[in-house]
Amino acid sequence: MDHILSGIKPTGQLTLGNYIGAIKNFARVQNEGEAFLFIADLHALTLPIEPADLNKNSRDIAAYYLAAGLDPKKATIFLQSDVPAHSELAIILQNYLYMGELSRMTQFKDKSSKMKEEAIGLGLFAYPVLMAADIVIYDSKRIPVGEDQTQHVELARDLVKRFNNRYGDVLVMPKAEVAKVGKRIMSLSDPTKKMSKSDPKGDIYLSDDINVMRKKIMSAVTDMEAHVHYDPEKQPGISNLMTIMSALTDKSFEDIEKEFEGKGYGDFKRAVADCVVAEMEPYKAHYEEIVKSGLVDKVLEDGAAKASVIANATLARVQKAVGLYNKK
Ligand code: AQP
Q1: Which among 130, 42, 36, 32 has a CA at the least distance from the CA of 81?
Q2: pLDDT at residue 200 in the model
Q3: Could you tell me where the DSSP H helices lie in 202-260?
Q4: For 262, left (φ over 0), alpha (ψ -120 to 50), or beta?
Q5: How many CA atoms lie within 13 A of 22 on its CB side?
């Protein structure tokens, strides 16, 4: 069975973008291979975050995973920081990625451009090294991610090639998998920007009340074209709403265009809001049940124990390959 790895970093409240681009797919992939679905809490430290928020966000993500149907009997669900082998492996792998390539990463450029140079942490710069360790440590072949993360997976592939050229067939080659629809949900207030949990403008949060979600969709930025047509260049706002509808209902863009031919944006937005509510209402209720059940801590504990077995074996293999002494 192929190993599949993905995760979310607990930097803030989860958005509809995280749900469509990541969580919704996780429930599917757990049936397609050995899935390792984690919470990248060490990655969340790469930007300033309150300890209490990091703690709460981490448990919240686990609850949202379970609410989406992730089954701990099928998928291994854990916190990155509960498996120390990730960090140990990153220390070794950092020697096989170069400053030039790390400084070309779009996420690093975006995030660091808003900071003074003397305040940019090394962790933000080295983020893709730890992410490469997260990936290779489970011999992962399939990496389901949103579009923004594909560049980091490409870098992990470069690293695997480089490492294996030097030491033989030690690491498994990963490959990013990006959904056709929903790989990049955009902000509702600025549809040229990604909906992002650390940039709250135009986000729909999974924690939003259903009526708030509805209101946000009804006031999403559109355009003057006045027809429902998929054209991300000319009509980014409408195209984004079409993407949300398509991702949640499996309707094609053509079907949506036909359905709303001759109708105004008000009707279309109401229909998009209905789709979001239909998906989110039961999902949020399930999330509340999971939180009340107190299941999360046990799932994370068991997940970390299971993940550690594979992670420690890969770490030992790499340590031995590079010549660290006395490794079994
Ligand atoms: N807007 C989005 N559309 C589709 N997919 C998205 N993802 C994130 N935003 C969207 C996917 O969610 C997964 C988890 O992302 P992450 O937490 O590791 O970090 P990110 O990609 O940087 O997501 P955010 O929400 O923008 O986080 P912050 O604001 O902390 O940087 C990934 O698969 C991602 O592609």
Answers
A1: 42
A2: 75
A3: 210-218, 236-249, 253-259
A4: left
A5: 25
Task: Please state the φ and ψ torsions of residue 18, each to the nearest 5 degrees.
Answer: -65, -40
Dihedral pair phi/psi, residue 295, rounded to 5°: -70, -30
Q: Is the CB of 194 under 6 A from ligand 1?
A: yes
CB–CB of 6/37 below 8 Å?
Answer: yes
What's the one-letter identity of residue 84? P
- 186 in Cβ contact with 194 (< 8 Å): yes
From the CA of 195, give the closest atom in ligand 1.
1
List, for residues 120-178, the tens digit of each pLDDT value: 999 999 999 999 999 999 999 999 998 999 999 999 999 999 999 999 999 999 999 99
Whether the per-residue pLDDT at 327 is higher than 90: the answer is no
Distance CA 93, CA 116 (A): 28
Mean pLDDT over the full length of the chain: 96
- Interhelix angle 51-67/296-322, nearest 10 degrees: 100
pTM assigned to the model? 0.94
What is the Å distance from ligand 1's center to 46 Cα?
14
Q: What pLDDT was estimated at residue 328?
A: 64
Distance separating alpha carbons of residues 43 and 60, to the nearest angstrom: 16
